[in-house]
Automatic annotation (TrEMBL):
InterPro entries: DUF222 (IPR003870), HNH_nuc (IPR003615). Residues 336-387 form the HNH nuclease domain. It comes from Glycomyces paridis. This is DUF222 domain-containing protein. Pfam families: DUF222.
Length: 518
């Protein structure tokens, strides 16, 4: 269909609508900032009178605001930071109180200046000669703090951050080196299994250089979502989920490297012990053992495909090792390169965007069942879809180099030596299309509702409900009023308080700049 040609009248109407929208948003921003300024002044009075501690029994300023007055966590943190440090950075506090600079910009600035004694002292030390504001030559800045006020008022967050980073870099004195030693002393990392055989919790505190290295790796391995990746609600894909997958690739790639740390001559690999008959699915009454713990046969067959798992397979009757080691089950460097060249688009699952470097080699005929490790019997799949194809009902047929038809049969196939013979099959593309508008389609992996296990169902259901709340929020008529309308003649003014704050479904890492679900 040819694009509609806009007439001069259409363009004029759009410009007028845009001006009206800008005016409405300017008014809304002024109202919001005015309310924040009023709240800040009241909180400063409350802190001065020690109301939070003596009346309400709170020692933490932010917790007092969140628990007693139902401030959002972010707003409470900003207000508390400025109020606590108002006497030390009075110029910045005044900029927030009179609406000259946004409260979040000022809060970030005071927290950064308060990080080291050297920065706090320098911020209040007058320049020998006042300097002009880089944003308005008529404004004279007598101190570094006054200059920071100008950045907080006129510069975007990234420029403000860069200015403060440069300020800290110029004050690299011994006291800050000692601060660095303190950071390294305080850093920790805990990895704890939540429940036996289940997921793991990762928590910790990293020093600035360690955190910067990890952040750089995650962004390199898995770049943040782009603006053109937003969904129909204007929400970006969840970066937090991508970070988890990038961390796995970091560990998997390094753990199998010859340069990795070793213990007793071995890198960070997992040991799987199983006998060949059990691995082939025969009813032996025995279970595979992974790192000393029993696991299911299905899980063992999947893990045996991964490079970080070394299977020790035995002939149980004779008690001897079966020569099905790494060389036979995993493609060598040349074969892996051939597979990647033939499948440059990444995972073989229809529509999956995981890069080929993150994919695992899947045997169409499993190596434990006698399947060969050659190009004809291998296809590359990401971890999620590789695991999916190890569940019941899936078949894969390789049609060309790097291409395969992935099919699911609704009835079991090949049970007790007999084929079902039914025509109840659907391809991966068919399944994704049917699932596209399902209310349970909220996870970035595309996890089908039929794949929700009983153990994981409560946690998955909570996430589903949170995302549904988010969808309802973004479908609100007030929010929808922000969308572009080609023939708009008037733009509604959004009154302060007309719209509730969004539900708490956003990740912490980029929430200041991007809306990211769970």
């Amino acid at each position: 269909m040819a694009a509609k040609t806009l007439t001069p009248q259409d363009r004029t109407a759009r410009r007028e609508a845009a001006r009206a929208l800008h005016a409405s948003l300017d008014d809304s921003a002024a109202l919001i900032n005015g309310v924040y300024a009023t709240a800040l002044r009241l909180v400063m009075d409350a802190f001065e009178g020690n109301v939070h501690r003596e009346v309400d029994g709170f020692s933490a300023h932010r917790d007092w605001l969140v628990s007693t007055f139902d401030f959002t966590f972010s707003a409470a943190g900003n207000i508390a930071s400025i109020a606590k440090l108002a006497s030390k950075f009075d110029r910045l506090a005044e900029a927030a109180l009179n609406g000259y600079a946004r409260i979040d910009q000022v809060a970030y600035a005071v927290n950064q200046l308060h990080k080291t004694p050297a920065a706090a002292l320098f911020a209040r030390t007058p320049f020998r000669t006042p300097v002009a504001s880089p944003f308005d030559a008529a404004v004279s800045c007598a101190t570094p703090e006054a200059l920071v006020v100008e950045f907080a008022a006129h510069a975007p967050y990234r420029e403000l951050r860069r200015h403060l980073t440069e300020l800290h870099a110029g004050l690299a004195e011994e006291v800050e080196l000692l601060d660095g030693l303190g950071e390294k002393s305080l850093q920790y990392l805990e990895v704890q299994q939540i429940e036996e055989g289940g997921m793991w919790a990762l928590s910790g505190l990293l020093s600035s250089d360690t955190g910067r290295l990890l952040d750089k790796y995650l962004k390199t391995a898995c770049p943040p979502p782009r603006d053109d990746e937003t969904d129909q609600y204007g929400v970006l894909p969840p970066q937090a989920n991508r970070n988890a997958e990038a961390l796995h690739q970091l560990i998997a790639g390094y753990g199998s490297s010859s340069q990795a740390a070793t213990r007793h001559g071995h890198t960070a690999t997992l040991d799987l012990v199983v006998d060949i008959e059990t691995l082939q699915g025969k009813d032996t009454g025995r279970l595979p053992i992974l790192e000393g713990e029993p696991i299911s046969v299905a899980q063992a067959r999947l893990l045996a495909c991964e490079a970080l798992v070394i299977p020790s397979v035995f002939d149980y009757a004779r008690g001897e090792a079966v020569e099905l080691g790494r060389a036979l089950r995993l493609p060598n460097t040349a074969l892996r390169r051939k597979l990647e060249l033939e499948q440059q688009g990444g995972c073989a699952w229809h529509g999956c965007d995981r890069p080929v470097s993150w994919c695992e080699a899947h045997h169409l005929a499993h190596w434990a069942d006698g399947g060969d490790t050659n190009a004809e019997n291998l296809i590359l799949l990401c971890r999620f879809h590789h695991g999916r194809l190890h569940t019941e009902g899936w078949t894969v047929e390789k049609t060309d180099p790097g291409q395969a038809v992935i099919t699911h049969h609704d009835h079991p196939i090949g049970i007790a030596g007999r084929e079902c013979g039914c025509s109840d099959w659907r391809t991966d593309a068919d399944l994704d299309e049917a699932f596209q508008h399902d209310e349970a389609n909220v996870f970035p992996t595309g996890l089908f509702a039929s794949e929700w296990s009983e153990a994981m169902k409560p946690g998955l259901q909570v996430k589903l409900e949170q995302v549904e709340q988010g969808r309802e929020y973004f479908e609100d008529p007030i929010w929808q009023g922000r969308r572009k309308r080609a023939n708009a003649t008037e733009i509604p003014v959004i009154e302060l308080g007309a719209m509730a704050p969004p539900p708490p479904i956003y990740g912490e890492r980029n929430s200041a700049e991007e809306l990211i679900p769970f």
